[in-house]
Amino acid sequence: MSFNPLEHRGIPLDRQLRNWRELNVDPIDPDHADPYTRCRIITMNGIEVEALMFSHQFARNCADMDVKRQLAEVRYLEQQQQKVVNWLLPGTVSALETTIAYEQVAVDLTAWVARMEPDPYLTQAYQFGVLEDFDHLYRYANLYEMIQHRKAEKIVNGLTEVIPGRPTKYHHRHPADNVRAPYDRTTTAPISKLHALTIMSAEQQTMNFYMNVGPQYMEPIARQLYQEIGLIEEEHVTHYESLVDPGETWWERLVLHEYNECYLYHSFMQTESDRRIKAIWELHLNMELEHLRVACDLLRTHDGREPEEVTGPALPEPVTFEPNKAYLRELLDTQIDLTTLGEGYVRDAHERFERMQEALNGDGPPPSETVIDEHRERFGQDYRLSTEGEHPVEELRAPQPTGTTGGQR
Ligand SMILES: [Fe+2]
Ligand SMILES: [Fe+2]
Ligand SMILES: [Fe+2]
Question: How many domains does the chain have?
Answer without folding.
Answer: 1
